[in-house]
Automatic annotation (TrEMBL):
Domain of life: Bacteria
Topology of this chain in the membrane: Multi-pass membrane protein
Organism per entry: Larkinella arboricola
Record localization: Cell membrane
Primary subcellular site in the record, as a coarse category: membrane
UniProt entry keywords in alphabetical sequence: Cell membrane, Membrane, Transmembrane, Transmembrane helix
GO cellular component: plasma membrane
UniProt name for this protein: O-antigen/teichoic acid export membrane protein
Transmembrane segments: 52-74, 86-105, 278-298, 304-324, 336-357, 401-417
């Protein structure tokens, strides 16, 4: 929905914080013309444009939610007993959602200054507070409006939290920024070519997920689909947890890139990728070994997918993550190619999956993913990444993916021997 502006602003703010003099210097990836201190003047220009752009995006979001969103809610709301409470609850959700969308300007600012650990700690505290108040509300009432309002209060509070965190960090530089309400066309013209490519990439990635959902409906029995959806949900959680060691450092990688500290960038990126790969592989192995036992304890009718399918799915997600991390590393150059990678790999995925769906059933989906990710996405992203770092593939990967892959290979070997 943000058309790629979020990741673009985070990256550019991190560049300015590293001392970049202007966006032109950033796009050339050179160390010259870099200040020894953060360029708060450029940060202010970027932040001013971010405010202007997000106001427009928030207005668009409000119109979309207010029309299409409300239309989608008509049927479920008219199935409730309390129409007034239901409509008011929807109104609260709609307003809070738009407010949170606009409030991304504060989280973008914080993440651009590499304050991700600080933000995540406060997010955890806010999440705990939200869970506690929701439980308390449930104990005292079953009124939908009260329950929804309690939940959405913390959505609004999270924006206020990020605003005050922005003011508190970096010696209160936030309050000293020269913020104007004027639209800086020159700055926008330099941001837009980068942002729209990132936006297209995001749309293509989400489109791939939607196409996968369509494929689910065409496959086998409801029990098979339920098992597969459970596996996808679990592996998605494993993937998201494993992303933290690498993705939380992306603003730092951008800063090192613009400062020309390539050796340190390589070292930090290798460490982040290694930990991310290791956590993912350990999670996959844990699920593969313990899923049937856990499901048996739950006395559920749903069975977990076969070990063959789980391994194939795990490999497909690993290859995607492998390419995605290299893509993020390359994007620190501010040259966006992810729309090409996502577009081509998505087309390959759709063609292969639909071609094999009638023959291989559920297996066609991870096979299609592997065809798209291994056939184009991963090697395309990795090639661009290592080339930008002036390091060969082996010297980079021997410190990142080699040990996790050997561990996974050992698990597969044991699984089939035993």
């Amino acid at each position: 929905m943000d058309l790629g502006f979020r990741s673009t602003f985070i990256r550019l703010i991190s560049y300015a914080h590293a001392g970049a003099k202007d966006i032109e210097t950033i796009s050339k990836h050179t160390k010259r013309s870099i200040l020894d201190v953060p360029n708060w003047e450029l940060v202010g220009k970027l932040y001013s444009n971010m405010i202007y752009i997000y106001r427009i995006l928030a207005l668009i979001a409000f119109i979309v939610i207010g029309t299409a969103g409300t239309w989608a809610m008509i049927k479920p709301i008219f199935q409730t007993d309390d129409l007034l409470s239901s409509w008011l609850s929807w109104g609260v959700v709609a307003v809070a959602s738009v407010y949170k969308f606009y409030g991304a300007i504060y989280s973008n600012y914080l993440e651009g200054l590499n304050k991700i650990p600080l933000v995540r700690r406060w997010e955890s505290l806010t999440s705990i507070a939200g869970s506690v108040t929701s439980i308390i509300a449930l104990l005292f009432t079953n009124d939908l409006l009260v329950l929804v309002s309690t939940n959405q209060f913390w959505v609004i509070a999270s924006v206020a939290r990020n605003f005050y965190l922005s003011r508190a960090i970096e010696g209160h530089q936030f309050s000293k920024l020269r913020i104007t309400n004027k639209f800086d066309k020159e700055i926008f013209n330099r941001i837009w070519p980068v942002a729209w490519r990132s936006g297209i990439s995001g749309i293509m990635s989400n489109g791939l997920v939607n196409i996968t959902s369509i494929l689910y409906a065409q496959i086998g029995t409801s029990g098979d689909v339920a098992s597969y959806l459970l596996a996808v949900r679990i592996i998605t959680q494993v993937k998201e947890i494993s992303m933290a060691p690498f993705y939380s450092k992306i603003p730092l990688y951008s800063k090192l890139r613009i400062q020309g500290e390539i050796r340190e960038l390589i070292s930090k990126a290798q460490k982040g990728m290694f930990l991310s790969h290791l956590i993912y592989i350990l999670g996959v192995i844990a699920v593969g070994l313990g899923s049937e036992f856990v499901i048996s304890l739950l006395d559920s009718n749903i069975k977990f997918i076969s070990n063959d399918l789980w391994i194939l799915l795990s490999i497909a997600y690993f290859v995607h993550r492998f390419g995605a991390m290299h893509m993020q590393l390359y994007l620190t150059t501010n040259h966006v190619i992810s729309h090409i990678a996502d577009g081509v790999s998505g087309i390959i995925f759709v063609i292969i999956s639909f071609a094999l769906i009638s023959t291989y059933g559920l297996y066609a989906i991870p096979i299609g993913m592997l065809a798209g990710y291994l056939g184009f996405y991963a090697w395309y992203a990795t090639s661009a990444s290592v080339k930008s770092l002036s390091i060969n593939f082996y010297n980079f990967e021997r410190k990142t993916s080699m040990i996790p892959l050997l561990l996974f290979a050992f698990y597969v070997f044991i699984a089939y021997i035993i």
